Amino acid sequence: MRSGKPIEVGIIGGTGYTGVELLRLLALHPGVRIRTVTSRTDAGKAVADLYPNLRGHVDAVFTDPEVENLSGCDVVFFATPNGIAMQSAPVLLEKGIVVIDLSADFRLKDADEWAHWYGQAHACPELLSEAVYGLPEVRRDAIRSARLIANPGCYPTAVQLGLLPLLENRLVAADRLIADVKSGVSGAGRKAEVPLLMSETGESFKAYAVAGHRHWPEIVQGLVEMAGEPVGLTFVPHLLPMIRGIHATLYAVPIDEPGDIQRLYEERYRDEPFVDVLPPGSHPDTRNVRGSNRCQIAVFELRGSGQIVVLAVIDNLVKGAAGQAVQNMNLRFGFEETTGLQAIGLYP
Amino acid sequence: MRSGKPIEVGIIGGTGYTGVELLRLLALHPGVRIRTVTSRTDAGKAVADLYPNLRGHVDAVFTDPEVENLSGCDVVFFATPNGIAMQSAPVLLEKGIVVIDLSADFRLKDADEWAHWYGQAHACPELLSEAVYGLPEVRRDAIRSARLIANPGCYPTAVQLGLLPLLENRLVAADRLIADVKSGVSGAGRKAEVPLLMSETGESFKAYAVAGHRHWPEIVQGLVEMAGEPVGLTFVPHLLPMIRGIHATLYAVPIDEPGDIQRLYEERYRDEPFVDVLPPGSHPDTRNVRGSNRCQIAVFELRGSGQIVVLAVIDNLVKGAAGQAVQNMNLRFGFEETTGLQAIGLYP
Amino acid sequence: MRSGKPIEVGIIGGTGYTGVELLRLLALHPGVRIRTVTSRTDAGKAVADLYPNLRGHVDAVFTDPEVENLSGCDVVFFATPNGIAMQSAPVLLEKGIVVIDLSADFRLKDADEWAHWYGQAHACPELLSEAVYGLPEVRRDAIRSARLIANPGCYPTAVQLGLLPLLENRLVAADRLIADVKSGVSGAGRKAEVPLLMSETGESFKAYAVAGHRHWPEIVQGLVEMAGEPVGLTFVPHLLPMIRGIHATLYAVPIDEPGDIQRLYEERYRDEPFVDVLPPGSHPDTRNVRGSNRCQIAVFELRGSGQIVVLAVIDNLVKGAAGQAVQNMNLRFGFEETTGLQAIGLYP
Amino acid sequence: MRSGKPIEVGIIGGTGYTGVELLRLLALHPGVRIRTVTSRTDAGKAVADLYPNLRGHVDAVFTDPEVENLSGCDVVFFATPNGIAMQSAPVLLEKGIVVIDLSADFRLKDADEWAHWYGQAHACPELLSEAVYGLPEVRRDAIRSARLIANPGCYPTAVQLGLLPLLENRLVAADRLIADVKSGVSGAGRKAEVPLLMSETGESFKAYAVAGHRHWPEIVQGLVEMAGEPVGLTFVPHLLPMIRGIHATLYAVPIDEPGDIQRLYEERYRDEPFVDVLPPGSHPDTRNVRGSNRCQIAVFELRGSGQIVVLAVIDNLVKGAAGQAVQNMNLRFGFEETTGLQAIGLYP
Questions:
Q1: Would you call A243 an interface residue with chain D, using a CB distance cutoff of 8 Å?
Q2: Taking CB atoms and an 8 Å limit, are D343 and A343 in contact across chains?
Q3: Do C200 and C278 share a structural domain?
Q4: Does residue A311 carry a pLDDT above 70?
Q5: How confident is the model at residue A304, as a pLDDT?
Q6: How many other β-carbons are positioned within 10 Å of the β-carbon of residue C232?
Q7: For the Semialdehyde dehydrogenase NAD-binding domain, which residue ranges apply (chains A, B, C, D) (predicted)?
Q8: Across B191-208, average pLDDT
């Protein structure tokens, strides 16, 4: 276990929800010092003036996102809109700084597919193969030695953790997967847009992006790797009238008699500190993981049809973003994996 | 079109959410007089004392649900828990009173299946075949002459309207249907139960009854009739952190090239006053039908997979309960079908 | 009572919440035809494409807010940001069109005070004295013959209706009034601003503008007129984590023994169609007036201290904006005052 | 600072919201061992089966609340309805166990007043004078040596902390105080009651208990002690459509020129770890203290009127209940006062 002096941390884009969540987690992490927090729009302001929940915990001042402001960092987190990290990551890597990107810039392996879904050419396609997709439950060892970690998206985290044991063991028809997922509005970020207003999203529910969502290729890429075969996935995201939480309802058709699914999940995740398989018959609530880095999962095999239904919940800002990024940092820098991530879900 | 003196209406169980919603709608209906509103627990109290939104609109006083209090009614609505209507309906029918039951007592045709799902023997199985399942879009003519109308459940209304055009035309694999449905908490009724508290349901989301829900056999019964063949349906209900609204996300696999699905839906529902097929690419919001008797539907055929995804929204208390009951009453008593049901969805 | 052909209505700024609420109300009003709906940003789009709750009820297309588009209107509503109506009202008035302004442009009588609070010179100060402040409970007769009606603000409506009987009768110390008011977020309008996001306003509560709010001079002006003496008012607005509804909690100190306050309120409002004094001991819920044009009021005289506490609730978009505007239109054009405003509060 | 082996903790009534919040906090407190958690209704069940957020953190099983189950405890928390703690506290105290009561049983000094407000005779009036009212900001030293600590109510904590500096310094008219307070629904507890349902409390706002609330005498007792003179307090509680959070809006009239109020507050609370005076002009949000033990305060002196307005927010379950109880335990047992209470408010 690591000891000694704290590592120096930089955060690019500290004014969005994933950025401020990183600050909330890192402020109480015993092994880090927050050295730099950048924000192009709020440079010069104290972080705690914008985010009064951090008063007394974070005394940093937002700076401009210039590279020189990040020298001296051991690790830099990008909590930026897509398309930013790929501009700066190469320079930081050259300086020997570890990069953990919470945006989508390094999640896809195929630069053409990235360009298709994100509407621009990739700035450093040569790094895509090196980048390690930071889902610890799948590639913990690679994360331990990575220079560049692509932190998974929120939906992809919930869907992949929910389907992993089934696909690894080739128990279900990989070409007929359905993910009906629901997210709280904080997943859409801190953007001044009419559709995200309380008056628009409160007391209402809707699907969106049914015809195509950027998380679809990311999920498919991950599932293909788990399954070792092509995957057909129908993915329908929905917007919940609440702030934090993702609930994935996953449908899969067993190939043969699938055996004891409950036990399969329990064994697969037995040693995982942040994946919790609930007792048979449970229905996970998103509230039980609110503010925590945990994924709670329940599995059903329906009588008659045999259809398998998996329910997986996470907090989109924690296990779906900032918490998983800290988990990756812990792995990369030799901290206990759970350091700074012990918070219990805030119920009620 | 009917004219002349108003019909006399009785409501059994006026203190639940469907009962008070009936009162809200009937109070402004030009062709009815609210003669009797019963409530075992609140007999003697003025309706408007319990429900101040009705002050000045409803001057009825709750009475005991004795049959003599209902003599003189032309129609009696049951807005009671399951198992009540089947006790009293035969006597009322004998007196020539039309019965519209908003509970589940007369929805299933098979008395054994009813007993299985509702945990008791049916009190008048001989009426099950006579009862008309009150989904006007499917059996408008039968409703016009029915003595006993079984008003559909909220989930069944949304799911059946969503799948109707596909199944009637045998365009999809009837044995592989999936209904992932989400409901506001008012669907669970006005019951003093911990799981329905604001602190339990607010800011959280979960599935429930995945292993089996009473609306499953009701939906399957309806779908089988539409499809004219056996149906395999996976049905997963969820609880939304909001009050009113149901959103059904429906998944179906086309058998062959299904043709122009959008046009199919538009034509099927062209003359339906309360089913509104949205333009291609739309995503219906539950808020847009809040307080209205409308079902809004959008249809997607996904590129590549060909999977059909249907989105259908209703207000569970209106088109999913009291509004549909009034629609059935209108049909039965010769009113214009839309009388008293013109309210526009309350946005924002 | 008016009959004959419908009046022709124009709405300037139909894309905000008060504009779409006007459309919801006017679409079902039997005496009007919606002739023109303008929107600078959405000109050319069908109203119902932007607001799917209006599909089938409103077939208008947004046009540019040019004066020629408004010729032929009998009445024009301004549902615009402050500072717009005062630019165009003079031209419309010249053409003989009645103007009902839902913004603040004509609410204050003093042009200097208006300039102070709204940060710009008033464009037509000569109209300020002519404009009739459209609170029907105070000046119904003047409204009946007005050319230019200044529709009251949402907070001012609730506070003035709550204090009116006390001040008219000089029962309380006019220099020590306190209004602690709470509003749903729709009161802030449909603006793309971060502080109005669901993630910012959901599950949280705060005061705002404690040092000074634009509704303060409007309320004071009204209270002074009622009291016939100078008024001292402390006004603290708060933002509720919900969409519709205002709750005013009003504190006043009786001068002498105030007599039977409950009866005073009941008598003052006995003939008012939209003010409803609740029975003694009641606590009005904002939900009971949601979607309706009603103000519900309860009055308490506290034991011991004698302090008077008044609770008043309205729907900020109806009695606090669009509903009151329609009420004013009804008065002005000789309709029954309640025409098109009969909707019952949407509970639950 | 204390070190050595953990203290043994018992919790009576672990199934309510304050009980489960105590568990959430104590599970991560490095100096305690949760020895016993009682629940009459859930005895025999694992705590984490009822509260899945605690899985992996709390392995206790609910037991019956028999005294023998509590032997061996160093401290026992009562998280019970009013009227329970006073039955058992004497026996526990005799055994040398420290008692921290989160209910109201020991908050009032006058047994007759207690009986008046709580509707029963007090079971051990002789303990009322000994009990220490556990507001650390007022009587930290007494808490350090107390046997019996009466943990303050949620409203009383917010109101007293908000008014303390003004009253201690006799700057305002003590006979004209107004507290307009708003609480999330979790303050009403985990009780199966219709008025607490999501459908009743969501998207709505109301005052309640205007004629008299049990927290009124508790607050007055505290204010009298601060002011050293009689106090006149008008107290109006309201119910917010959200789960956690209290916002107190406090009105006080200065006697003379009050001086620099902002500085007064900053100095009074400079060394308080859990009271945070915000910069001038701030408006505290309840969200910024959600899940944290902090009280955030802003102070305004209004231009013209001179009226002082104080805004104070807490999380009713933390600083308003379980967090303050842990703070008191820390003081009593020689832990650092902030141990286990470092969590940062959960924004967004």
A1: yes
A2: yes
A3: yes
A4: yes
A5: 77
A6: 15
A7: 8-146
A8: 97
Least CB–CB distance from C348: residue in B17, B49, B202: B17
CATH number of domain containing C181: 3.30.360.10
- How many Å lie between the alpha carbon of C226 and the closest alpha carbon of chain B? 28
pLDDT score for A165: 98
Same domain, C30 and C125: yes
Whether A96 and A193 share a structural domain: no
C340 within domain boundaries: no
Cα separations (Å) of D32 from D55, D134, D339?
18, 20, 11
D348 touches chain C (CB under 8 A): yes
Same structural domain, D108 and D194: no
Q: Which ranges of chain C would DSSP assign to H, the alpha helix?
A: 17-26, 47-50, 85-94, 111-118, 136-144, 154-168, 198-201, 215-227, 261-268, 323-333
Known catalytic membership, residue D154: yes
Q: Does the CB of A86 have a partner CB in chain D at under 8 Å?
A: no
Same-domain check for residues D170 and D310: yes
What is residue B293's DSSP assignment? Answer: S
Buried b (16+ CB within 10 A) or exposed e, D207-223: beebeebbbbbbbbbbb
Cβ-based contacts of B238 with chain A (< 8 Å): 182, 247, 249
Say whether both C74 and C177 belong to one domain: no
User: What are the DSSP calls for B60-96, one per residue?
Assistant: -BEE---GGGGTT-SEEEE-S-TTSHHHHHHHHHHTT
Is A33 domain-assigned?
Answer: yes
- Look up the ipTM and state it: 0.97
D241–chain B Cβ distance below 8 A for any pair = yes
**Shared-domain flag, residues B189 and B259:** yes
How many CB atoms neighbour CB A129 within 10 A?
9
> What is residue B267's three-state secondary structure?
helix
A contact test, residue of B181, B201, B204 with most A CBs within 10 A? B204
| C323 found inside a domain | no
Q: Which of A130, A165, A194 is the last residue of a domain?
A: A130
From CA C168, how far away is CA C176, in angstroms rounded? 16
One domain for residues C278 and C226: yes
State the residue range of the domain holding D274.
155-316
CATH code for the domain of C96? 3.40.50.720
How many structural domains is chain A composed of?
2
Do residues B193 and D195 lie in contact, with contact meaning Cβ atoms separated by under 8 Å?
Answer: no
Residues of C in contact with A199 (CB under 8 A): 17, 185-186, 190, 196, 243
Asked if A4 has any chain B CB less than 8 Å from its own CB, the reply is: no
**The pair of three-digit structure tokens given for residue D219, joined into one six-digit string:** 């607050």
Catalytic residue among D73, D124, D154, D295, which?
D154
CA–CA separation, B8 and B35 (whole Å):
6
Q: Which two tokens stand for residue D50?
A: 């009822």
* B4-40 confidence digits (pLDDT tens): 899 999 999 989 999 999 999 999 999 999 999 999 9
- C14: pLDDT confidence band, cut at 50, 70 and 90? confident
Subunit contact B211:A303, Cβ cutoff 8 A: yes
Contact D185 B199 (CB under 8 A): yes
Please check whether residue C281 lies inside any domain of the structure. yes
Is the pLDDT at B69 greater than 90, yes or no?
A: no
A43 pLDDT higher than 90:
yes
State mean pLDDT over A38-49.
94
